[in-house]
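Study this:
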Amino acid sequence: MKTTQAILQIGKNGLTDRTLELIKHLFKNRENVKIVLLKGAGHNREKAKEIAEKIRQELGNHYTYKIIGFTIFLKKWRKEIKAR
């Protein structure tokens, strides 16, 4: 049974290789992943967009993201999404 959403926090260490591996692993059993950026990761809209774009590039074109505040919502699609 697939659950719909997992929640992950990114702190002062930022986006590491281990974090990217964990995100990939979460998508094996989940449809959506919610990533909360803590103050240590840098509360800056540009930093949030940079992190989200880096994650999307690592995951591939079947994924999209939406940023609300300092929360990144990742979604996996069945079909490949055209680059923005």
In short: The mean pLDDT is 87. The chain has one domain: 3-76.
